[in-house]
Specification:
This protein is α/β, with parallel strands linked by helices. It has two domains: 79 residues, no CATH class; 219 residues, Rossmann fold (3-Layer(aba) Sandwich), CATH 3.40.50.300. Helices cover 32% and strands 19% of the residues. The strands form three sheets. It has a six-stranded parallel β-sheet with strand order 3-4-14-13-6-12. Helix 5 crosses helix 8. The relative contact order is 0.15. About 2% of the residues have low confidence.
Length: 397
C-alpha cells in the first residue's frame, strides 16, 4: 500500500484514535506508526495513540494479530515496565450491546464467554449442557418451526442445498415480508431530491440493520454468495417480480467491496436499490442509495463496479456492526470441499473460536446457528495462531 503520510510527512495530531483495532494487520500498523513518528526536526511525533477493539475477535485479513499481541503481552510480568511507560491497556468489563438484565442478551453474552474460555477449558459439551447454576447454553432444535426470536439456538443440519433453500424461504417469510417494508421498497422516489424522502429512506436503512445472515466465507455452497442467491430468488418469487429485473431489483440490499474515493463510497458501506423517477424523461429508473457523510445519495448501476448482495455477509465483513437478530451458517465440511483434504483443512481454518465469538457478539437478541454440531464443536477448539513480533519488540526495548 502507498499512504499519504510517513515519517517525513507525518501526521500532525496530539491524539490519534483508531477504531476496530483487531482489524489492523502488521503492514498497516507499521505504516501507521511510521506516519505518527516524525523524523522532521521541527515537528514532534504523535504523543498518544489509542486503539479501540476486541482482541478476541477475528484477526485482520492480512498478516499478524497486532491488537491481540499488544493486549496479551501487556498482562505479563516481563512487560510491567511497558504498562508504566508506553503501553496502557484498559479493559471493558461490561457489554453495552447485550443487556445483562435481559434474558436473551444474557444468554448470548454467556455463550460468547464460554466460547472464549475454551482456550483454558476445552470442553465443547459446555456449550450445550449447564454444569452450574446460571450457566448459559445453546438450545438445540430439530426444525425451523421451533425457532423463536430468543437466545442462541442451533439447528443441527448438514446444510445441504435443499436445507439452505428452505432456510432462505423461512428467512424471507420472517424478516423480509413486513408490509411497510415491502410497501416502501416499491415506491417511486425522486432522485434529484432524495432528502425529500429522508424519513422513508431512514426507515428502510434502519429496518435492514435489525437482522443479518453471517457466513464463514463468501464462496462455497454455504457461503454468502450462494445464500444471497437463494434469498434473492425466494424474495423475487414471493413478491411476483421474478422477471421484471435482471441483476438488481427494488429492495435489494448491497455492500461496497472496494474503496471508491471519487464517489466517497468505501469497503463495507451498505446501500439499497430503489426505483427513482427521472425528472426529465419521467421514466422510472433503478438506482442504489447510500448514506454518504450523513446525506443520502443515489448512484446508477454502471457507476458501481464492486458490489455484492448483502442479505448475507461474511463474519469478517460484519465486524463493527450489530444486529438484533442474526443467523450464522456454518460450512458443511463434508460437502463444501472442492479439492479433497487440502480444501477441508482450509475450510477448517475458517471455522475458529475467534470466528464464532465475533459472530455471537454481533447480536443483541438472538442467534440462530445452522450447521452440524460436530462442526461447531470443532470450531471452538481451533484457535487462530498469529505472530507479528510487535509484542516481543516492545519487550526488548
Amino acid at each position: 500500500h502507498s499512504f499519504k503520510h510517513h515519517e517525513f510527512d507525518p501526521l500532525e495530531h496530539d491524539l490519534l484514535i483508531v477504531d476496530e483495532g483487531s482489524m489492523i494487520d502488521q503492514e498497516m500498523m507499521s505504516s501507521l506508526l511510521r506516519a505518527a513518528n516524525s523524523e522532521l526536526p521541527h515537528q514532534q511525533s504523535v504523543p498518544r495513540i489509542i486503539l479501540l477493539g476486541d482482541a478476541q475477535q477475528l484477526p485482520s485479513v492480512g498478516n499478524g494479530a497486532v491488537l491481540l499481541e499488544l493486549t496479551k503481552n501487556s498482562s505479563t510480568p516481563e512487560t510491567a515496565n511497558i504498562e508504566e511507560n508506553q503501553l496502557h491497556v484498559v479493559r471493558l468489563c461490561r457489554s453495552y450491546r447485550q443487556e445483562i438484565g435481559d434474558a436473551a442478551g444474557r444468554n448470548i453474552l454467556g455463550v460468547a464467554e464460554t466460547v472464549k474460555a475454551m482456550e483454558d477449558d476445552p470442553r465443547p459439551e459446555l456449550l450445550f449442557a449447564a454444569r452450574e447454576p446460571n450457566h448459559e447454553i445453546i438450545r438445540r432444535l430439530k426444525s425451523l418451526e421451533e425457532v423463536g426470536q430468543e437466545k442462541v439456538l442451533l439447528l443441527n443440519q448438514a446444510n445441504t442445498p435443499d436445507q439452505l433453500l428452505s432456510f432462505a424461504s423461512w428467512w424471507v417469510e420472517n424478516y423480509l415480508s413486513d408490509e411497510k417494508f415491502l410497501f416502501e421498497t416499491q415506491q417511486n422516489f425522486h432522485y434529484d431530491a432524495p432528502e425529500s424522502c429522508a424519513a422513508q429512506l431512514d426507515y428502510l436503512f434502519e429496518y435492514l440493520k435489525h437482522f443479518r445472515i453471517l457466513t464463514a466465507t463468501q464462496v462455497l455452497p454455504s457461503g454468502a454468495a450462494a445464500v444471497n442467491q437463494k434469498i434473492s430468488e425466494c424474495w423475487l418469487t414471493k413478491n411476483g417480480v421474478k422477471d421484471s429485473f435482471s441483476e438488481h431489483y427494488p429492495g435489494k440490499p448491497v455492500m461496497v467491496t472496494e474503496n471508491n474515493y471519487r464517489l466517497q463510497l468505501f469497503n463495507g458501506d451498505q446501500g439499497i436499490f430503489l426505483k427513482f423517477i427521472n425528472p426529465e424523461s419521467r421514466e422510472v429508473e433503478l438506482k442504489a442509495v447510500f448514506a454518504v457523510d450523513g446525506v443520502f445519495k443515489t448512484f446508477y448501476q454502471y457507476e458501481l463496479h464492486h458490489l455484492q448482495t448483502a442479505y448475507a455477509i461474511t463474519v469478517h465483513k460484519s465486524q463493527g456492526s450489530e444486529y438484533d437478530h442474526l443467523a450464522l451458517i456454518l460450512p458443511a465440511l463434508s460437502r463444501d470441499h472442492v479439492a479433497g483434504e487440502a480444501a477441508s483443512r482450509s475450510i477448517g481454518e475458517l471455522m475458529s473460536r475467534e470466528m464464532l465469538y465475533t459472530a455471537l457478539t454481533r447480536a443483541k437478541k438472538s442467534v440462530l446457528i445452522l450447521g452440524e454440531q460436530s462442526v461447531l464443536e470443532g470450531a471452538v477448539l481451533h484457535k487462530v495462531s498469529r505472530y507479528s513480533g510487535i509484542g516481543a519488540a516492545l519487550v526488548s526495548k
